[in-house]
## 1
Amino acid sequence: MKTKTRSRLAALVCLLVLAAALFYATRVLTPKRHDYGSTWGQFLKEEKNSTDVMFFGSSLVYCDVAPAAIWTESGLRSYVMAGAEQTVPMTYYYLREALKTQSPKAVFVEATGMIYDRYTNYTQVNIGYMPWGGNRLKASLTEAEDGLLPGFFFPLWFYHSRWNELTADDWRVGLTGYRADDLAGYTFLHEYRSMSGPKTRRFTPDADNWARNLEFLKKIASLCADRGIQVVFYLAPSMGRLPQETVDSLKDAVAGMDGARFLDCNGIYDSFGIDASRDYFDTLHFNVSGAEKFSRVMADWITENLGLSPSPDADAALWDKRAAYLRAQAAQPLTPRKETAE
Amino acid sequence: MRFQSLLYMLFLAASALVHARLSPRLRTPFLLALSWFFYALWEPRFLALLLAVTAVSFALARAMRARPERKKRFLVLGLVFTLGMLFVFKYLGFFTAGLSSLLAACGFAPLSLPKLLLPAGISFFSFAVSGYLIDVYRGTAEPERNFIDYALFVSFFPAVLSGPIERANHLLPQLRARRAPDGDDLRAGSLRFLLGLTKKLLIADRLAILVNAAYAAPETFTGAQLLLAILCYSVQIYCDFSAYTDMAVGSARLLGVRLFENFDAPYSSRSVKEFWRRWHISLSFWFRDYLYFPLGGSRKGKLRTYVNLMIVFAVSGLWHGAAWTFIVWGLLNGAYQVFGALTLPARRSLRASLRIREDSRLTAVWQTLVTFLLTTAAWVFFRADSLPQALLVLRRVVTLAGGVFPLRFQALGMNRPALIFTALSVLTLAALDRYGQDRLCLRLENTAWRRWAFCAGLVLLTLIFGAYGPGYNAQDFVYFKF
């Protein structure tokens, strides 16, 4: 009996040590995510219920919306919780997850995701960095290709082979955790490319995909309505624009959703003061100069159309620091991209 | 369902759990059903072939007992059927291609045959069945009365795909006993399986990256790089096949069955002859008992002994694969032994004249090193896609083509940390081989803390440093294709 107890105790202790070792190994070996979306580790370091506005969607959000610029312009606290090629269903799960720790008054969803395929090149990143829980589980089971599933349940499956390329940052963040993001989810781009003029974006329409995305758009609207959050589905301004009939379909669909608004930023493009020769990183994305301009206009639009005003609880010192950081980064001269042709 | 897959581990765990709780009379049918299911997962249509070989050999062995005066005829019939299947599926294409070339050279139209898929494990189960028929013929084994026990002997899932090649006298009594595994079996079986898994994912599959890169385009690598690759292949194939055996033996042990051991630290051998007593033991002994001895073994003079050796190793090469590379590999191993026997007196006299004792450490290290290098050179033929490729690799290695420095081993797809870690793993394995895997298992079985800590360490090492996941192509065991 004594031997059996000892054996069980040995098993328990060794398995616990193994589990702890695997937990920390996973944290260290997983590539660190400080920008380009899916920055959940940093987002979770934000003080709870400390954002007024949240932005969701694809790279058109994390490259174009600079929360620090919105703060400077309006005194509103915002955060970008986007992901590369984030599909509409993924946006829904991101929103649900974000609402666990934040209670924004308004949510902006960049709606270009309506034309994305169900599986994109970034599913692994978009799901893999989500916090553990029901939303991650549902996203893993419904939004990921089968081949990726093992990695969502056991991230070492994706990342264990990084053991021979670990950096000091991997160890620091892996062992001590992420810090809050000075850019609040925005990704800083410093190069520019000259643009000649807008073009229509080409894609293969897929009726089933559109219908599924629309279903999730409704879920987003419904979730926001339930929580008393104003929701705006918008199309980011860019030089690669959706065909007008697609924009119209989207507008009509949103019009039928209770309390949801639609904003095609390309329709008010002239008000941004964008310099097509200096403010773009590429056809779709602004660099920091363009993002600052766009964010200031968005801040004004929010104040005027959604009636939001700065919160008296805002940590002004933190946001002023963030604004100063963005200004310092933006003050650095822009550099031309190597491939200058559009 | 690969042994190293999570699915197989779940399958094995569930099988062991249910098997241990079944009543004894249900255990064998249960294991048989599992084995057929396991085999059918690889290629369902070949299950019929396995069943046919099982049924025919069972009936013929029974007939040998019932009609002893015609037992030779039954034996021949059984061997023709069993080995005939092997010939048709594995060698017909090879011989037809050879014949076609000959016919074409003589101006005749070449033969054409549809390419046949090789049934999984056919080389292994056909040898197990042939051995059984010969044993029954010789009277060294009783014909099995119970078809279910016999069918399980042929298709027992841990061994059906890549051995060890079992003998009726060893496996059948265990299956008849219908024993449930005890605590020792479960501990030893799990540990053995885990050791095999670690060896496969930590060493064999990691080395496979380097070796595959080298053999994909040997002309683009320097002699030094190819030397590293061929040395690595020696380690890879050992780790790969012995890992398979560990997992097979471990799996069987979890079901209360002990399979043959296939390896006994082969690279510590001091001669090629000794190497073949320690490498793929179940196959070496099969050839010894069923081919070498019937040919006369070493009882008919030196010349005949050497001829017999060459025959056995040529057949052994052919058994591994229907290609000239395997035949040359086999012949080379035979030639090493013939040459070793012929030069033994001279080598002994040389050592005596240099006052180096036969049992000295220097002699042992020298002989072990030479044996390793000889087998490594032979493995080049085993691994190469063709004879010209094997010769190209050897030529580049021997002439150190492209110079030695800079080494640039990274060009082989493995960066420096990975190379160092793999080297450390190989050294650990060598130490483990020297210490004795059985001895280690025994020590660990007796101490719960040590055992659990060891297992947890292996799991952690494998999950962090093992070759698995989306960045790797899961490597089948090398011997699966035989």
## 2
Amino acid sequence: MAEAPGLIEARDLTKRFGDKVAVDHLSFDVEPGRVTGFLGPNGAGKSTTMRLITGLDRPDGGSATIGGLAYDQLAKPLTRVGALLEARSLHPGRSARNHLLFLAQTQGVPASRADEVLDLVGLREVANKRAGGFSLGMTQRLGIAAAMLGNPPVLMLDEPVNGLDPEGIRWVRTFMRQLASEGRTIFVSSHLMSEMAVTADHLVVIGRGRLIANCSTEEFIQQSSERSVFVRSPEADRLRELITGDGGAVTDEDGGLVVTGLAAPRIGELAASASVVLHELTPRLPSLEEAFMEMTADSVEYGRAEHGRAEHGRAPLGESTAS
Amino acid sequence: MNAGLLSAEWTKIRSVRSTVWSLVAFVVVAIGFSALIVLVINNTWNSPGNHPNHVRLLEDPTAVLFGAGFGLGQLAICVLGVIVMSSEYSTGAIRSSLLAVPTRLPMLAAKAIVFALLDLVVSAVTVFAVFFITTAIIRSHVSISLSQPGVTQACIGGILYLTVLGLFALAIGGLIRHTAGAIATVIALVLVVPPLISLIPGTIANHIHGYFPTVAGVLAGQTSQQAGDVLSPWQGFGVFCIWTAVLLAACGWLLVRRDA
């Protein structure tokens, strides 16, 4: 039976390091033709999952397949899957061209392909320079060149925009979108929600090695229960009393109030009934960042959740201070 | 395994500086030290006193001609053998290598074959260079030629010993995966441990010493079995090959099982 060559399937993947469960019975599919974001806080198990899919780490349970085959069953794996895992996956004393050349030779890919992918990522001029002298951004580009070497239908990129300048970040985004539109499977991890909001069509979200969400990016934001309304009024103190009296929670922000627990129409009605003037009444969808913080709050390693909230100054519902 | 994997390993090994420097160090030290020692023997030939080397030179010429230079020069082969494998881990290049060859063992096999061939060619050139340079130096006192009994065999044995020594070091590099630790281990096995074992009295210790990998292996560079040797040259070489094969098998077994 022929499966789509671009379909990644993870089934019950489990990996332990000593006592610590890094990946915990993780199952998901990654489909061709779209960018699938792989989201999770640092330490959630994203990189380990990618290493399990590509066979670098051996799973303690479960399996992962690409087009129905385990990675180590693929005859010329680089022509089936291109992977950018850790950026420093090369010998610093070897030139960029030689790095790509030996990879090409293992796959029976013509040596001229090395120069093609160097052109593709804009490293042709430094092709004969030792890779150890490259900046992190250039090293990432070389890693992407290596991933594209076999022109594979599947690309797995672990934090590809790390260390890139804004121009490089834009380049990677456009590149991923273009590859997805060609029908390839793009599986890209990030801990930056804002990055995923603009690149990913679909999200696989994990925390502490477990699946938290597997849905479209839009749905992910919608699913979040955390909705708020931004309201501005010259009589903020009276409005605050009205809202808290009606069961809402209020926090101050940018010369206005952020209300949770009450919908915008109800706030308008309350204001009208007490003749409080409103200058602004805006329902807000949570950002992907907020949705993410909320959904992964219980699963963040090392209690980082608290820091995250403090930094962003947006406490989720139930923990806001009603003053 | 296919030709592509062999050319890939050749690309890897020729494209880093450590290969060239290790091999240059090997050739220079081997030729330099052997020539130096034989020059000293030559210049002190007629001076009064005991000259155990003179007797040895007649009984087992290659042991004297090769002893000094290769005794030290072999360390460069050990270092290169370790680095060829351990640098994959220390640099992170192993991830790229194993993404390309996820079945792993063919990569190790190709690496071992390519490195062994390189080691063989460089050793052959160096062994014969040392042989012809040193015999030319000592010519006026002792005449040594390839046609004498055991001499050609000892030259070939020396070349094969250096080749297998490289694989021995490569296997330890793959087992330990840390360059410094693996180099220290190989040097301890080659230079430090054998003399310590030989200090222990008794026939059991003598046999342990005789079957110790590098002690057995280095016999291959002798023309004949000398008094006190537990094994003949080819027996010694066989023992060394078995040690190396076991270590390579362990290296392959762990390569397949360990996380990269």
